[in-house]
Structure formats: structure tokens, C-alpha cells
Amino acid sequence: MNTTVVNKVKAIKTLNSIAESGLKVFDSHYTIDNDSENPDAIVVRSFNMHAMEFGNQLKAIARAGAGVNNIPVDKCTEQGIVVFNTPGANANAVKELVLTSLMAASRNLFDGVSWVKTLEGEGAQIPKRVEAGKKQFVGKEIKGKTLGVIGLGAIGALVANDAIELDMDVIGFDPFISVDIAWKLSRKVQRAMTMEQLFAESDYITVHVPLTEDTRGMFNEETFSLMKDDVYILNFSRGELVNETDMAAVLESGKVGKYMTDFPNENVLKMKNVIPTPHLGASTVESEENCAIMAARQVKEYLETGNIKNSVNFPNTAIPYTGKKRVTVFHKNIPNMVGKITSAISNYHLNIADMVNRSRGDLAYTIIDIDNIVDDEITLNLEQNINQIEGIVTVRMI
Ligand SMILES: NC(=O)c1ccc[n+]([C@@H]2O[C@H](COP(=O)([O-])OP(=O)(O)OC[C@H]3O[C@@H](n4cnc5c(N)ncnc54)[C@H](O)[C@@H]3O)[C@@H](O)[C@H]2O)c1
Ligand SMILES: O=C(O)CC[C@@H](O)C(=O)O
Questions:
Q1: Which-ligand-closest: CA of 96?
Q2: In what pathway does it function (predicted)?
């Protein structure tokens, strides 16, 4: 059971380096306390939170980024902790790195640069050695080649559209594409009806899906066998999308020509023709600021008003905050919960000014604004009464 302490300074804990401009969103009503054992909210990037226990004051976790596989979302849902992410805030940064890698790999840029550096000390011989040696690094142009994009979300759609501008043929696969993205996608992007079709037609494949139990290991011996010989694969999503043993084998045989991954580990670094980057996709000044500001604003809004925007585990729910007493309740999505909550309120002869109820799966969230001045004693009693209703997960009085 969560008990609300009204008007205390709220503690925000960060688990990774978060851009200063984001932390500045938290004004004097907040303290950034990275040693806090029981913060009101956590802001995180890639820190693995699966082994963490959460204090009873924790109300929100904000992922300054897209992927939430480092957060135990189901456990948070059971405990009424809202998990936010920042959709699209780092998409441009990732898109630029994907296209940079695509072109650099096609032109053997990484190997060429490394080789030139070995010539240091050869003095006047260097230009001659360069001209003689460059034939090792002859590349291929991307113009007219087919790029397969798996996952047409914030990143995949940007990559697909810009690859069209680079004169590539683009084929996309996303059975869950959103209407918003479908409107933004170039008409020249062809739709693959199956992933098998995309595998069969692509010279380059880039993957932009979240890591879930459905997508884990989607690149494996069986799917590699459906691809063209010498296909280049770009993985700026998550390492676990790829079966590493199978990838090592197809790189060795030459079935896959190159593998660009943002997720190096010991196995990856042993692979032939791998181009590993140090999880750099979102590492630009602009992207880090976008993500941090968006994450911080969403947390602040939730802590101060109970309104939810961009949560991955609770429904988006918002009504304008008037500053009067607000009751927010997470509860089971079963009949008559709203009736029981509103009758607990009417027992105190309080009038309801506005309310909203949204559900997602087994849980629902209700915000109720009360049209009266409510003193601290009634606030605490009402909170306790609502908490005692069967099926309540958490209650906050704001
Ligand atoms: N390298 C980095 O630094 C970096 C940065 C940002 C995001 N990422 C990774 O990239 C992923 C995608 O980010 P985004 O912002 O584009 O997310 P997004 O949610 O906007 O897009 C994901 C898309 O994948 C689609 N999808 C889901 N399952 C699918 C499947 N089985 N087959 C085809 N499509 C499927 C969804 O419908 C959605 O359109 C993130 O989940 C994260 O893991 C990495
Ligand atoms: O925080 C980062 O640098 C990486 C973020 C990225 O993996 C994401 O999923 O948004």
C-alpha cells in the first residue's frame, strides 16, 4: 500500500548519465538524489534494473530512450509503478548512424582507415603504398540496391525514407505499423507481406524492432538461409535479436558479408567481418537532450498531476489539472471499481468535478477531481478508505 505524503520535496534518482537540460526540468520542489533508497521516481538509460527492489515511494520510472527491456515492466505494473519511455526522441540520431554505417561498410571505410594508419613511419613511400594498396578496399555503391527494413517505427521509418532519397530500393516489414507512421512513409517504400519476402529480396537488412520474446533470436540459421548471399546486416536495435552462434557461422562462410552491430560482447568481437560500435546509436548531444527533457517532463507531469503520457505499461490518461484535490487510483480492471471509489468519495459529501477512467489489460487507471476544499485529515482518511477497496493497487491524493 502506498501512502501519500503531501507537499514533500520529491527525490529523483538517476541510474545513468542524464543530460543536464533534462535534470533542470526538476525545479526546487525536487532533489536529484542518486543515493536515495526510496526515490519518488527514477530516470534511466541502459542500466539493467531487473535485479532491483523498489521502495514504496517509487511512483515512476522514465527510460530516456526507446527500449525498455532493461526494466522489469511486469513487476512495475503489479506494483503500480508507471514506466515511461521517450518515443522518437532519439530516432534521428539512430537513423544517421545507421545510414553512416551502411555507406561506410559498403565502401570498406573502417578497414581502409585502419590500414592507412599502419603506414605511419613509411615517409615518402606512403602515397605510393596507398595507390598500390587501395585495391584491397574496393567497395560497392548502395544506389539501386535493395534495403530491407524490419520494424517501421520511429527509427525504421526515417531510415526507409532517407534510403529512398539515396536512390536505394526499400522494402519494409511491420505487421503492427501505426497509422501515424504509415502517413509519413514514402510511397516508394514497398511493403513486404512476410519477413521471408524481405529476406529473399534484400541486399542490406536493417532491424528496428524492440527486444521481446517474439523478436529474440529472429536472426538465426533458418532465417539466414532465406537471405541472399553476401547480404549485409545492420543491428542498431538489440544484440539479443541475433543468435550469435548462427551469425558467427554465416559470417565465416560468407553467406552474410558484414554484420554491423551496436551491441558488442566477447562473442561478437571474435566474429569475422563484424563492425562493432559501442552502443552509439543515441549518443548525440541533441538526442541525449531530447530524451532527458521528454523523460523528465513526463515524470514531473505524472508526479504533480497524475496525468500519464507515453507510458509503456499504463494507458495514456489525462484531464486538465485545476489545482483542486485530485484522487488517482490504479486498480484491477473489473466491474464496479469506479462505483466503489466514487461512493467512498461521496461518503465524505464531496462533489466530483471531473473524472476519467482508462484500462489496459488487467489494470485500469482512474483520475477524479473533487470540487471542494479537502483538509489533510479527510484527505488521509479518504485515501485509506479507497486503499481498503478490494482490487486497488495504489492510490495517490494530489
Ligand atoms: N542503438 C541505440 O542506441 C538505440 C537507440 C534507440 C532505439 N534502439 C532500439 O531500437 C528499437 C526501435 O526503436 P524505435 O524508436 O524505432 O521504436 P518504435 O516503437 O517506434 O518502433 C518499433 C517498431 O517495431 C515494430 N515491430 C514490433 N515487433 C515487430 C516484428 N516482430 N516484426 C516487425 N516489426 C515489429 C512495431 O510495430 C514498431 O513500429 C528500440 O526498441 C530499441 O531497442 C536502439
Ligand atoms: O541511452 C542510450 O544511449 C541508448 C538508448 C537506446 O538503446 C534506446 O533504446 O533508446
A1: 1
A2: Amino-acid biosynthesis; L-serine biosynthesis; L-serine from 3-phospho-D-glycerate: step 1/3
